[in-house]
Amino acid sequence: MSRSAKTLAGPGYIILNILRVMNIIALLMVIVASWVMLVKTFVVSKFFFFDAVSHLITSFVGIFLIVSELPLFKSYYTKNWPLLSQSSGLVTLGAAMVVLGVSILGNLNKEATSQESLGTAFWRIVISSGVLVSLLGFLNIIASFIFRDSALDITARQVRAKGAVAAQGSPSTSSHRTYVNEYMSERNSSVRSDHRPPLLPTQSSIGSAGRNDRRTRNPRLPLSISRPINFNEQFADYVQKPNDAHVHHPAYLSEKV
Question: First vs last Cα of the chain: how many Å apart?
Fold first, then answer.
């Protein structure tokens, strides 16, 4: 780590863990506020279905973010939700919390979730949860940029988990990038080897193949020419005998040459 990063890593370990506890409390308040508005919407409004679904989704997102802040299912978040894993900062978490806060505060304009419908006590729970989760969302985004070390690819989550020793043996994004680069290089090399064009035949191989093909089609065998069917004895001197007919055949002469 650089000197400034080492200086911030110690206090950052304490500050970020306090911020984590506050995140969990704020998200729990969001879940409670969502269920309060869900019940009041069911009592007051006739078209409560879609409002109820939106409140349910808000509460489920709050639970999902709470689990990401706890040391539970780390491998699942690393594999399927890398922006909420140790190799990432707190920007995604902060942005999600800001969205939840805006959604909670936006529901206060409805009749079913107004101060008169909810009552002062429940209305304070809803408005305080929306303000608190939005504020903590911005604080998470700011803390993610303050306590990270870009030179060593150390995120604010890693500082929160290990403090000043985050650079020693912590799963960094550089190791993940190295693994991805090695995997892609091996894959590209295998693809190139599979699509390698066949070697072109040389001139010598072409010539030898042509000669072998001609020999196969035209075997050099001794041929015997039979005498004519209507044989005339006066031409007997001009007819070769069957035994020595192949001696003067072109194929037999070419083999001798």
Answer: 86
